[in-house]
Amino acid sequence: MKQFLALAITCTVLYSCNNADSGDKTAAAKPDILAANLDSTVKPGDDFFDYANGGWIKRNPIPGEQSSWGIGNLVIEENLKRLREISEKAATSNAAKGSGDQKIGDFWSMAMDSAKIEADGLKPIQPLLDKLNAVTDTKGLITVVSDFKKIGSNTLFGEYVGQDAKKSDVMAYNLFQGGLGLPEREYYFKTDSVTINIRNEYVKYISKILTMAGEDATAAATTAKNILAMETKLATVSRKLEDLRDPYKNYNKMAVADLSKMAGNIDWPTYLNNIGVKTVDSVIVGQPEFFKGLNAVLTATPISDLKNYVKFNLISDLSGVLPDAYGIEAFNFSKLFSGAKARKPRWKRVIQMEEDAMGEMLGQLYVKEFFNETAKKRYTNMVEDIRAALKDRIGKLTWMGDSTKQKAYAKLAAIKSKVGYPDKWKDFSAMEIGKESFAKNYMNSRLWWHNYDYNKLGKPVNRDEWEIYPQTYNAYYNPSNNEIVLPAGIFTVPGYRDEELDDAVVYGYGGASTIGHEITHGFDDEGRQFDAAGNLVSWWTKNDEAAFTKRADVMVQQFNEFEPIKGYHINGKASLGENIADLGGILLGIEAFKKTQQYKDNKNISNLTPMQRYFMGYALGWLSHTREEQLRSRLLTDVHSPAKYRVNGPFVDVDEFYTTFNIKPGDKMYRADSLRVRIW
């Protein structure tokens, strides 16, 4: 997945094309975005990221409310304003009850009524707290946990309904490790001063939330330490980030009866019935050792601590819809990971939650007003150009045998592309949104999504469904559907209409970093293990698997060497899939771009050749800088490399980069030919 930021809300070039008069030929030409951003004091062969983006970064410090700042943020900020306009318009529309405008308008108006939220206090969730307070044993606790999960509080473990990895036409119930309040297991074990401080602050945060919810302060402090100890036990039996990338090891199908034998402290038949899993006799367990460990934790932990653990998670997960004091505490704790200096204003926080609750509903209104079919066609055609480029490159591979190549061709041809927005929208008529409270609306929206997902069990897989919204600044490859999904928002260059951008920029920015990236995911270390129909099945010969692994190991070692923060290296194994996709996207973009008229004409723009503009267009896609706190967190939790290394990292493996910028031995980015990664 192409990922910039935690917040995935954006506008798009595709949309914005309709906002300007494309027939206005008198408007002054805009400055060349590539030339405006570069830093000429940096040699491209020493640090290409800083060369291409350094000028902009120097002129644009990170705002206080942000953990990072870059092109993605600019798109997001523009889109936030548009979504606000849509929401405000809906709130005053007197729309018919049950309509999309009514739901959006009521959600917005109740969320913006801070006086009512403060007056209500914990009243909207008090029935949930009362139910938890009445619990006397583990069995009762698990029942409450099932209820809480339905409305947006995740605790103890993770679960979801999705396609069976080995039978992609069947929806399955999946269990996976979870239960941690810190972002990743390593936070429980690292001994550097920063991480130790984070653990200490986490205990304070738990204690504060429990005290605000009515617990005795002294008792809450003790309970908070016990909760950290409990979570540390769960972290001990949790798999490391890199080990979660093996689809075979994380696929363990078992009968419900066997799950009960493995983790009998949970009454699984009752729990599954409560959660909405009523039509299956088997489940897929990602990490069995975790659930064995969870079973032991449930035995060893006093019920009072377990209840407070669940209470803390409920309030923390819903802090954004409760009185401001809870949100402030959550933000103050989150600063340890984001580095943000100030909270976002309420309206921005509300748009985030509105997206979470009903993003596709917003998307319907959005595309009616802003979508442009011309740009959609441009990127749909580009998908086919890049698909053809990969077919050509597969044919020229010397390390892959013919039988595997034929299956690779079949998989490539079968990749479905979804561009812009869904052809069919979801039916949100059953989502109950009204004027009772912000918290009630949010919990109702989560309940709707829970029921929507769990009702898929026992029904045919809908391969036309989108998992993100048209206005989203992101994209993804789904191995079970063998599809790439490219929302309109991902192709946006802020301040520029699509037709104002030359092919070199577009093929680097959208073709390489997005389309080529996502297509290559079908052939990365994880995606390659799924066949053309989306099933987890071996279709490679043993020799070809070994040849792939040998080449992938070179990339693992390459990225392991990068140290963005002293003592914090990139995890080359955990980030392998994204790094392969980055490199593959660049190579495919080059091949596709070489077929354009701009490349053939070879005319300079702003003293930059077409190929120079291509590489700089790709670097534009990762234009951003990040606070150290956020960067440190991402190095421990994110399978994506930091922005700079998504540019400099793969570029050193691309031969055309050396010839285009005359990179020679002695330049900091020079990498001997024998050490360059050669996969796709």
What does the secondary structure layout of this molecule look like, with pairings?
Elements: H1 13-16, H2 33-37, H3 48-59, E1 68-70, H4 71-91, H5 100-112, H6 114-120, H7 126-133, H8 138-150, E2 158-164, E3 167-176, H9 193-212, H10 217-236, E4 252-255, H11 256-262, H12 268-275, E5 282-285, H13 288-300, H14 303-317, H15 324-338, H16 346-370, H17 373-396, H18 402-414, E6 416-420, H19 438-454, E7 476-478, E8 483-487, H20 503-521, H21 542-560, H22 576-593, H23 597-601, H24 610-620, E9 624-626, H25 628-637, H26 643-651, H27 655-661
Helix pairs in contact: 4-5, 4-16, 5-16, 5-19, 8-12, 8-14, 9-10, 9-15, 10-13, 10-14, 15-25, 16-19, 17-18, 17-20, 17-22, 20-22, 20-24, 22-26
Strand arrangement, major sheet: 2-3-5-4
- If you compute it from the alpha carbons, what radius of gyration comes out, rounded to the nearest whole angstrom? 25 Å
Number of helices: 27
Structural class: alpha/beta
Indicate the low-confidence ranges by residue numbers.
2-28
Report the span from N to C terminus. 18 Å
What's the total count of β strands? 9
CATH superfamily of one domain: Neutral endopeptidase , domain2
Biggest β-sheet description = 4 strands, mixed
Share in β-strands: 5-15%
Overall morphology: globular
From the coordinates shown, what is the CATH architecture of one domain?
Answer: Orthogonal Bundle
Would you tell me the overall average pLDDT?
Answer: 93
- Write down the CATH topology of one domain: Neutral endopeptidase, domain 2
Helix share bin: 40-55%
Which CATH class of one domain applies here?
A: Mainly Alpha
